[in-house]
């Protein structure tokens, strides 16, 4: 989505939100840390055991997620132990949940073992399976990308050059 078409002129998006997001979360260990955080895992040792991440890798990922504002450190102390930090999702981190569910559903559909997916998400209130749907602001269901038209947003610089053009 780094380039969209406006009429018959392609337009280069230099401040692409997808590219910026992947700059923060776009690697395996980060997604696994977030998976555990969404599951309620908060402590370093528990995250390391659940993800299998090497200590240095996990430490670097947690530090980056705190710096970027997706996690926050909360101090705790076990009796007779030194103070440590646990990691809790911020609102910015919580807002990634639909992305995590979409990745899980895609993996369930295309990569599951023959017996099926290892985990199912259900609504706590009624027990029904969780589904994701796309809708426009007027409530119409969107079946896929062919029903979506990219248009310049408020962050598009005026007079920005178009790919293959001069911007004149």
Oligomer: single chain
| Main sheet attributes: strand count, strand direction, barrel closure | 2 strands, antiparallel
Strand order of the largest sheet: 1-2
Instruction: Specify the structural class.
Output: alpha+beta
- Shape from CA axes? globular
Q: Would you list the SSEs in sequence order as H and E?
A: EEHHHHEEHHEE
Output mean pLDDT.
Answer: 88
Rg, nearest Å:
20 Å
**Can you count the beta strands?**
6
Q: Kindly state the percentage of residues in helix.
A: 25-40%
| Number of alpha- plus pi-helical segments | 6
In whole angstroms, the N-to-C terminal distance is 23 Å
Strand content: 5-15%
Low-confidence stretches: 161-168
Describe this structure as you would to a colleague.
- By secondary structure, the chain is of the alpha+beta class.
- Helices cover 36% and strands 14% of the residues.
- The chain has helices at residues 17-25, 28-38, 44-51, 55-67, 91-94, 97-111; strands at residues 3-6, 9-12, 71-76, 84-89, 134-135, 141-142.
- The protein has a two-stranded antiparallel sheet. A two-stranded antiparallel sheet has the order 3-4.
- Mean pLDDT is 88; it is low at 161-168.
Write the layout of secondary structure elements.
Blueprint lengths: L2 E4 L2 E4 L4 H9 L2 H11 L5 H8 L3 H13 L3 E6 L7 E6 L1 H4 L2 H15 L22 E2 L5 E2 L26
């Amino acid at each position: 989505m780094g380039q969209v078409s406006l009429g018959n002129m392609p337009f280069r998006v230099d401040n692409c939100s997808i590219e910026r997001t992947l700059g923060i979360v776009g690697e395996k260990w980060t997604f696994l840390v977030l998976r555990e955080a969404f599951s309620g895992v908060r402590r370093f040792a528990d995250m390391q055991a659940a993800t299998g991440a090497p200590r240095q890798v996990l430490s670097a990922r947690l530090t980056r997620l705190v710096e970027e504002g997706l996690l926050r450190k909360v101090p705790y102390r076990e009796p007779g132990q030194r103070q440590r930090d646990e990691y809790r999702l911020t609102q910015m981190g919580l807002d990634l949940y639909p992305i995590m569910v979409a990745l899980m559903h895609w993996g369930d559909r295309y990569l599951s073992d023959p017996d099926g997916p290892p985990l199912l998400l259900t609504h706590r209130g009624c027990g029904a399976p969780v589904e994701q749907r796309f809708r426009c602001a007027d409530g119409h269901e969107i079946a896929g990308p062919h029903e979506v038209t990219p248009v310049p947003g408020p962050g598009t610089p005026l007079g920005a050059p178009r790919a293959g053009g001069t911007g004149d």
